[in-house]
Write a structure and sequence with these properties.
The protein contains eight helices and 35 strands. It is α/β, with parallel strands linked by helices and 633 residues long. The protein folds into five domains: 102 residues, no CATH class; 50 residues; 191 residues, SGNH hydrolase (Rossmann fold, 3-Layer(aba) Sandwich), CATH 3.40.50; 77 residues, no CATH class; 39 residues, no CATH class. The strands form ten sheets. A five-stranded antiparallel beta sheet has the order 10-11-12-13-14. It starts with 18 loop residues before the first helix and ends in an 8-residue tail after the last strand.
Amino acid sequence: MDSTPNLQLPYLMAAQAQKHVTHNEALRALDAVVQLTVLDKDLASPPGSPTDGARYIVAAGPTGAWSDQAGKVAAWQDGAWSFHTPAEGWLAWAADEDKLYAYGGSAWSEFISPGIGVPLWGINTVADTTNRLAVSSLASLFDNVGSGHQQKINKAAASDTASQLLQTNYSGRAEYGLTGDDDFHVRVSPDGSTWIEALVLDKDDGTADFKTALRAQDLLIGAQATGPRMVAVGDSNTMGFGASQPYTSLISYPTWNGQSFTVSNIGVNGRELRDMGRLAYSNLNPLFASEGGLNIAVVWGGANDIAVAGATPATTYSYLRAFCSRLRSLGWRVIVCTLISRHTTDADNATFNGYVRANWPLFADALADLGAHASIGAGTGNYANATYFQGDQSHLADAGHAIVASLVQAELTTLAQAQPNFLPPFGNAGIGARAGASAKLTVSHNALPPPAPGAAATTLHLVAADGVAGGQLFMDAFGGVPGFSMRRANGTLASPSAVQTGNPLAVFGAWGYGATAYSSAARGFSVFWAAENWTDSAHGTYFTVNTTTPGTAGGPAERIRVSNVGLGVGKTPAVALDVEGPVAVKSYTVAGAPSAAALAGQIIYVSDETGGAVLAFSDGTSWRRVTDRSVIA
């Protein structure tokens, strides 16, 4: 070997002439690489007038005297450039940057010691003066040593910020922490510049202040009303987003039984119908108070399901129907609203509104058809009208809210004053009529007082039309036991007590017969179907079940009697059963055939009989083939 293995310093050889030359060459190499400090590491061309002893790390793509020397240490010594190839682990101080660089075997990179006082540290990425610790990784783990572990974020003063910021493509979307004071804040942003504060927890007592979506409903939970209540349920339009006031503040509320309405607006910005149903148990149902008497929920939603979540009108309608049905099952009276105009979704809104208009009586008590109004309706492009809509062409201005208020108020007044479908939790009720003095429920074709009640208490009373005595359905307490009777205009009953006294349930469809034909000893269930002016058993088809035969006063008679029956025949049945077409009987296997002893004359179809499938009949003991009377096997 003629040089050292690491620095490649030349050895003095035996009997070598000019030994001082070799020795001086080794000294120059040591002078170049020991305690290595370079003036620059980013030059690709040699400087014009280097000073003796100056050293550089040659940058990529070198030219001139540095050609093909990228990454090497270039030293200007004795008027010429010498180049030294670094080995892995070499350290070089860059004087122009005041940074230490290490050679990793293929390139130079900044070296940062994990010691105390390191100004910057980047792990798989570059740190800077703002992000002095930078980590690029799929995940980060902060583990415990022995037990627990705390992450600490400290700020200098209360007005400063100590928070966690969540970003999308380096743009803030959510932040929580101490932002601007010492209370705990939660806020979100759609774009990284506009921030919406959602929640603040007071540092002194822990009180939660829901700033937007949850504030109203949270403060109302459990606030029971002692009188009638109206709750507006919906999205940002319900809560009046961007307007000076919501539609609920523009309604002139009626009274109910002389009581004023308690009004609650629990509209939530961005809320979808799907979420309304899911969250009703916590933000709406607790507001229901049966002792208040009249509880009305105005449901206005679906725009976000269609425009934001991408649900179809049919799916959105199913959400609405399910939500409203659930409210009604709890006891709410429901006013359902159609959707207003909205940019890009008018056609879908109109389809949704068609479903609502066609079916609302199935799941609501009233319809406020906002979508049909000429100024704010869907399917008309009204969203471009700046008088009624805000600039986003989705939310109403105050003038638009005033229209909504008037439409809702009309239905609210109907429910509060006429009460056509209101069933209170106590006392008597009327549908289409004022409640009767002795009837628990009175139902009328139009709003008429019920007829004067009979001597016995009436449970249900139906009136057909003005002044018509017939078409009535009574459920009476016959002798203290609930009974049931029906009658037409040309037939009357003497009195409830004279008809089937003590009968648990008796149904009559009769014309002009006398009540005295029924024995007070009769019991059971009775159904009679008879012709006009039928007076006895010879004039009509009827069937009875354990009761007295009409026109007699004896004990229980036949259970069922039915005249000839025809299936598919275009004439009067000629025999007891007259069928136009094939008749099929049930198929059995030999092993699975039912008991032949149940009734002689039964017929079945045997699918696996020896010799092929065949009809079989019962002789009261065995099943026999109809072909040769042999017992099936």
